[in-house]
Amino acid sequence: MIKIPFNKPYVVPGSENYLCQAVANMHLSGDGPFTKKCHALLEQVLGVPKVLLSTSCTHALEMAALLLDIKPDDEVIVPSFTFVSTINAFVLRGAKPIFIDIRSDTLNLDETHLERLITKKTKAIVPVHYGGISCEMDTILKIAAGYGVPVVEDNAHGLFGLYKGRYLGTLGSLATQSFHETKNFSCGEGGALLINEPKFAERAEIIREKGTNRNRFFRGMVDKYTWVDVGSSFLPSDILAALLYAQIEQHEQIQQKRKLIWNLYFSRLSDWAKENQIDLPHVPENCTPAYHLFYLLMPSLEARTKFIAILKAQQITSVFHYLPLHLSEMGLKFGGASGDCPVTESYSDRLVRLPFYNDLTFDDQMKVVDACLSITFNDLHLKNVKPVNKKYAA
Ligand SMILES: *Cc1c(COP(=O)(O)O)cnc(C)c1O
Q1: In this structure, are 273 and 230 located in the same domain?
Q2: What is the pTM for the complete model shown?
Q3: Could you identify the atom of ligand 1 that is nearest to the CA of residue 179?
Q4: Residue 54, ligand 1, Cβ within 6 A
Q5: Are 74 and 101 in contact (CB under 8 A)?
Q6: Does the residue 275 lie in any domain?
Q7: What's the domain range around 316?
Q8: 35, 163, 218, 336 — which has fewest CB within 10 A?
Q9: Does the C-beta of 129 come closer than 6 Å to ligand 1?
Q10: Does the residue 232 lie in any domain?
Q11: How would residue 218 be classed by pLDDT, with cut points 50, 70 and 90?
C-alpha cells in the first residue's frame, strides 16, 4: 500500500535554473536580484505599496510588532485558535495577549466579541484568515478604526484569497505571509511583510536591516550607513528567493490546482459528512478561499481520534491543530481559563485536516476520499457519546 503523507514540499519543475542563476549572480545574501523580482511581482499582482521578504512569517510578525512600537503592558487581540507566532511576536515586546474566540462557521476571529475586548491599552488586532477564508474584514476594520487600533493580518494561509474582490493581506495596515514548506507557496523557510500604509515603509526597511539605513545608502540617498533604530536581521538569502520566485510566477496554476483539490474533497464528501454528523468548511458568499487546507469537524474528540487511527491504518496521514493558546502553558500564565473561548475549545478537539499539497494526484486524493467514505457513524462512535452541538445551529 502506498503511503499518502499529510504534506509534501513543492518545488516548481525547472526551479534548478533559477537556483543556478542565483548562485551565478554571486549575490547570495538578501535583497539580490531574485528578492527584488519577488517584491516587484507581489506588489504588482496584489497592488500593495511595499512588500519585503523576510526569513519567516514569524519574523514578519516581529517586524510588525516593532513597527507598531509594542511595549510592555500593551494589549494585542488575537484568536486563541491560531499558530503560536501570531501572538508570540507581540509577547516578545512585552505585550499581553487578549484571546478572542472564533466564529462557529469560518473558525475566524468572532468580530462580535471585538468591541468588548478593546481597552485603552489595545495596540493591535491580529486577525488570521483561517484556511485562507477571509475574516469579516469590513466589520473588523470599522471597529478598529473607530478606536484607532491598527490591524495586522496574519495572512499565512491566505495569499491570493479574496474578500469582496480584494486580496487578503491588502486590507490591514500591515500583513504577514509565510513561505514555510507547509504553505501554498514555499521556499523551505520564508515570509513577507506587506505594507499597506506607506508611512511604515521606510522604518520597515531599517528594522529589517539591523536598525541601519543601509537601504538608503544603497539608493545613494545618504553617503554612509549607520545605526538609526532598533532592528534585526530579517532578510532571506537570494537563493531562497529564487525558489520562491518560480512559485510566485506560477501562482495562478498553483492556486488553480489547489482549488481543484479543495473542490474535489468538498463535493465528494458532502453527503457522507451530512449523514455522519461531520461538518465541512464554510465559505461566506463574499469570499474566495486561498485553498490552504481542508478540514473536517468531527462530532466529538473520540470520533476524531478513531477517524485518524482508521486513516492511519490505510497509510493515510491526517492531522489536527490548533491547541487553544489561552489554555497552553504560556496562555495560562496570562490568565487564560477554561471556558474563555468555548468555540475554540470545542473545535480544537474535533478538527482534522486531510492530506493537501500541490503535487497531490487525483488518484491519491481519491484514495483519501474513498477511505473517508468507508467510515460510518458507527465506526466513529463509542457508546454513550452524545453528539455535540452542530456547527450551523447557532
Ligand atoms: C505557518 C504560520 C505562521 C508561521 O509561519 P513561519 O513562516 O513558519 O514563521 C504564522 N501564523 C500562521 C497562522 C501560520 O499558519
Answers
A1: no
A2: 0.95
A3: 7
A4: no
A5: no
A6: yes
A7: 251-381
A8: 218
A9: no
A10: yes
A11: confident
CB of 85 sitting under 6 A from ligand 1:
yes
224, 259: one domain: no
Cα of 149 vs its chain's centroid, Å: 21
Per-residue pLDDT reduced to its tens digit, 95-113 = 999 999 999 999 999 999 9
DSSP state of 4: B
Same domain, 216 and 255: no
CA of 268 to the centre of ligand 1 (A): 29
Grid coordinates representing 93 are 515586546
- Distance from Cα 262 to the centre of ligand 1, integer Å: 21
Q: Are residues 173 and 207 in the same domain?
A: yes
CATH code of residue 284: 3.90.1150.10
User: Which atom of ligand 1 is the closest one to the Cα of 82?
Assistant: 13
pLDDT digits (tens, 9 = 90+) for 309-344: 999 999 999 999 999 999 999 999 999 999 999 999
The count of domains in the chain is 2
What is the b/e burial string over 14-53, where b = at least 16 CB atoms within 10 angstroms of the residue's CB? ebeebbeebeeeebeebbbebbebbbebbeeebebebbbb
Contact 57, 277 (CB under 8 A): no
Calculate how far, in angstroms, residue 81's C-alpha sits from the geometric centre of ligand 1. Answer: 13
Ligand 1 pocket member 177 (CB < 6 A) = no
